[in-house]
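$ ./design --mode recover --in tokens.txt
reading tokens...
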């Protein structure tokens, strides 16, 4: 009888077609769509102002991606002193330390400053997409590098600039100056104490500088704060 079995190369051909199909799917992976939609291992969550996303010491089992709103990161020392370490906004990840290990814990507390809409991604799903989707890995790596550069800038700012310049820089960062897209001149309501913690000075000094900025026309401050481009003069002036 004639041999009706498939040619030996048929399996290889099938595998090749399968590999091509997989490559085609991979090429069509859209990181922006992934971060904007719910799916396996990820859900959209909403937090009200002052609501806590996670607390220092909690199990780090998920990462958040900010769709809208602002998030404040704080840390508390053993003596009970609290410090603000970062203010995050649209397009930022929160809680990226969850990917460092299966039993990692939060080293900061994250709380909403405004009403926040976030995509919550489980640790396992985050690791999967990082390993399998190169475009997403590139996006996340770019975020980590930018965050690292921001931390270095904060350190240089703290070491070499006056508290007045540090405050001006924080306000400009809150208004999204220097980021892609249009700035958001009206910044979220934030206390003088939080600003003082961020720049390493006292609340009274922050109040003094804000009043000075307002008199010079760099900001409008009447219930809400509006930041103008001219505030850059404080940073650029030696």
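writing sequence...
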């Amino acid at each position: 009888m004639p041999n009706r079995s498939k040619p030996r190369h048929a399996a290889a051909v099938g595998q090749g077609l399968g590999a091509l199909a997989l490559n085609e799917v991979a090429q069509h992976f859209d990181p922006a769509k992934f971060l904007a939609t719910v799916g396996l291992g990820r859900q959209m969550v909403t937090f009200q102002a002052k609501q806590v996303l996670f607390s220092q010491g909690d199990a780090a089992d998920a990462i958040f991606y900010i769709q809208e709103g602002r998030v404040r990161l704080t840390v508390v020392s053993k003596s009970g002193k609290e410090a603000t370490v970062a203010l995050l906004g649209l397009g930022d990840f929160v809680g990226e330390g969850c990917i460092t290990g299966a039993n990692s814990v939060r080293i900061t507390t994250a709380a909403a400053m405004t009403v926040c809409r976030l995509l919550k991604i489980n640790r396992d799903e985050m690791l999967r997409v990082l390993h399998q989707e190169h475009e997403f890995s590139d996006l996340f790596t770019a975020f980590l590098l930018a965050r690292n550069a921001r931390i270095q800038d904060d350190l240089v700012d703290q070491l070499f600039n006056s508290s007045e310049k540090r405050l001006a820089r924080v306000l400009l960062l809150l208004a999204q100056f220097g980021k892609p897209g249009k700035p958001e001149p009206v910044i979220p309501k934030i206390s003088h104490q939080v600003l003082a913690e961020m720049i390493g000075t006292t609340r009274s000094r922050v109040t003094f500088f804000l009043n000075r900025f307002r008199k010079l026309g760099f900001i409008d401050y009447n219930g809400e704060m509006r930041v103008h481009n001219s505030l850059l003069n404080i940073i650029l002036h030696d």
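exit 0
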